[in-house]
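Write out the 3D structure for:
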Amino acid sequence: MRKFNLKVLLLLSTGHLVVDIYQGALPAILPFIKTNLGLSYTLAGVILIVSNITSSIIQPIFGFLSDKKEKAFLLPLGAFLAGAGFCLVPTTSSFGVVLCLVAISGAGVACYHPEGFKTARFFTGDKMATGMSVFLVGGNAGFALGPILALTIVNYKGFSSLTWMALPALLFAAAIIFLLKKIAVQDAQKEAAKAAKAGISRQAFHSFFTILCVIIMRTWTHTGLMTYIPFYYINYLQGNPVYAGKLVSLFMLGGAVGTLAGSPLADRWGHRFWLRFSLLTSGLILPLLFVVKGIGLFFVVFILGVILISSFSVTVVMGQNLLPNNLGVASGLVAGFAIGAGGIGVTLLGVIADHYGVPFALKCIGALPLAGFLISLLLRYPVKEERVLAPA
């Protein structure tokens, strides 16, 4: 592993920001896609299913390819596809074509993340959680900027003007092509190949599976809030779309702050403790969304984002530490598959919203972080050296 390299981490973080702008903006513009195509809440949820399957669940496949041999070209390719697919959505009135474009954008996200997480790991040095938080904060910032940027464009220029959002992807893809040599990790690939002969302990396997289940609950909460806050304030309360966009963006901005602030605290107090603390506290704060009004609501949304998302970098590091010889696969599973599986739960929320209303669906989200906390009580981490299951 190389020394802590802030410049490379910031470069990778910038790409993470660009890619996640589109992933974060999709739930925010979903009400407009729904209206444009005359969809039900359930069909609108199908769009998110396609997005989550292509952007998250298939990430382990790209992680597997990344572990076999360096695939640095996935970084610019991922950024380009993520932007191209998203920005072409307003150009069609066909539900099938929208699904295809969302799938292309999602595939771009899946291209970037495993290679980005793995490459970032090699430049964190001994400050794994802190270094990973630098990479992750770019994604948090992208999720925060995406909704407000997209909704501002729609509000002032119209839905069709979203094509202008392709510029960040094009600029980053062009820039990183000229800088690929600076982030090459061939030497680390050789070391990983030698270490891959080792196996994974039974306890490490169980702990890794438990972490995946916790991440699913956290992601279901995260994606559910991003999706149903706009539905609640735009469709149900007939509020200003920009107001809803500000709430979602502030929620994600809080996540960016939590990512940077939570990692040092997790390193000091323990990864497992911080994971449990963030889930329990989030579950207690979430009901305040229906009680607090005005400026206080913005404060609650911000604090909720800080606490809930602060464990993101922690779970990535925990997963990589449990599977140190398969960083691409570990990153794809922790930051891809588990997150995508949690995101699919939003479709169930869509069914609930169709039958019982958006407010009830939003209230159901409050039980999810508490469920994640209960699952985390079963987690044993770190694990002791013991017999292995099979070669990795």
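DSSP finds 16 helices and two strands in the chain.
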